[in-house]
């Protein structure tokens, strides 16, 4: 998919998430009302999913959680 606000192209499995982060980082100030609503909605969904995932991880092996946290980015 192509960014509506610049010429950046996103593809691959994570394209929706990468594009979402790109919008928030680069274009949030100029998002249209509709895009802003979609962005905020998606953000809430991602945050609740992350809460769910971290709760799931807390029930699992704590070493694995530690390693995955510190190997990201
Ligand atoms: Zn862009």
Quick tags:
single chain, 73 residues, mainly alpha, binds zinc ion, C2H2-type domain-containing protein
Task: Please give the domain count.
Answer: 1
Which molecules other than protein and nucleic acid are bound? zinc ion
Based on Cα principal axes, name the global outline.
Answer: globular
What is the helix/strand order?
A: HHH
| Poorly predicted ranges | none
Structural class: mainly alpha
Please give the alpha-carbon distance between the first and last residues: 23 Å
Approximate strand percentage = under 5%
Mean pLDDT: 86
Largest sheet: none
Q: Using only CA atoms, what is the Rg? A: 15 Å
- Name the helicity range: 55-70%
| Tally of contiguous helical segments | 3
Total strands: 0
Describe the structure.
The protein is an all-alpha fold and 73 residues long. It has one domain (15-71). Helix content is 68%, strand content 0%. The chain contains three helices and no strands. The protein has helices at 15-27, 33-59, 62-71. The two termini are 23 Å apart. The model has no long low-confidence stretch (mean pLDDT 86). The structure holds zinc ion (ZN). Residues 3, 5-6, 8, 22, 26-27 line the site of zinc ion. Residues 49-59 have a biased composition (Basic and acidic residues). It comes from Candidatus Nitrosomarinus catalinensis. Residues 49-73 are annotated as: Disordered. This is C2H2-type domain-containing protein.
């Amino acid at each position: 998919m192509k960014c509506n606000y610049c010429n950046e192209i996103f593809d691959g499995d994570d394209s929706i998430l990468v594009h979402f982060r790109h919008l928030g980082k680069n274009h949030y100030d100029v998002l249209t009302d509709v895009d802003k609503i979609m962005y905020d909605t998606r953000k809430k969904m991602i945050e609740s999913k992350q809460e769910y995932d971290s709760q799931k991880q807390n029930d699992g092996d704590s070493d694995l959680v530690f390693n995955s946290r510190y190997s990201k980015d």
